[in-house]
Please model this.
Amino acid sequence: MSTADFSGKVAFITGAGVGIGRATALAFADAGADLALASIGETDLLETARLVEERGRPAHAVVCDVARSSDIAAAVSSTIEKLGRLDVAINNAGIEQPPTPLAETTEEDWNRLIGVNLTGVFLSMKYEIRAMSSGGGGSIVNLFSGAGVVGISGQAAYAATKHGIIGMTKSAALEYAADGIQINAICPGIIDTPMMGRFSGGTPEGRARVIAQEPIGRMGRPEEIASAALWLASDNGGFTIGHALVVDGGQTVGIS
Model:
């Protein structure tokens, strides 16, 4: 049970259908928030909404491609219309890259990664900040990756998007801190999600290979990242501005 209290507040979460996004939605619901949920996959999105409603909280579900300005603008607008306000935004939507050397990365794959992972966060923050500015402030937490703080072989394009999120987070945090909008980021390590299942190939050998990168000897749980997001967005994290919080089981400690 969370000690954070988000009663009377509205949290908007992108990539809310599965994994960290779903876990974060449920954590905020347990903390008393009303939820606006956005994802490109309708089936998973509606399941997250159902789970939120089972916890007694409203869930406004919006099918949304964060790489499309019109989609994210409509999602934020409908959140205000349906739930009345926007207090917290968790920008979690993202896609992965199969291990590919830079010179073999296609322009199509580069543009796809930039579009979802970087432009998607830019567009989300753009409309979230506007909504929060007119509503008296709020908190934004961007999810990125260990690939945002270190280099990873075969992940040049993916890492470029994640490094970009850190720079954008820090810059925007300075621009809007005085307006009562707190902007931070979380760097998850290897988390046991469907995305990691695809990356590891979904085999015991693949899982063992990625777990070997974690000094703690296991994958993280989505709920552990959700707990970090709750803290950053709560009053307890209110003096934290422009920070990239690494929650990675020690994965990057020796190489950052």
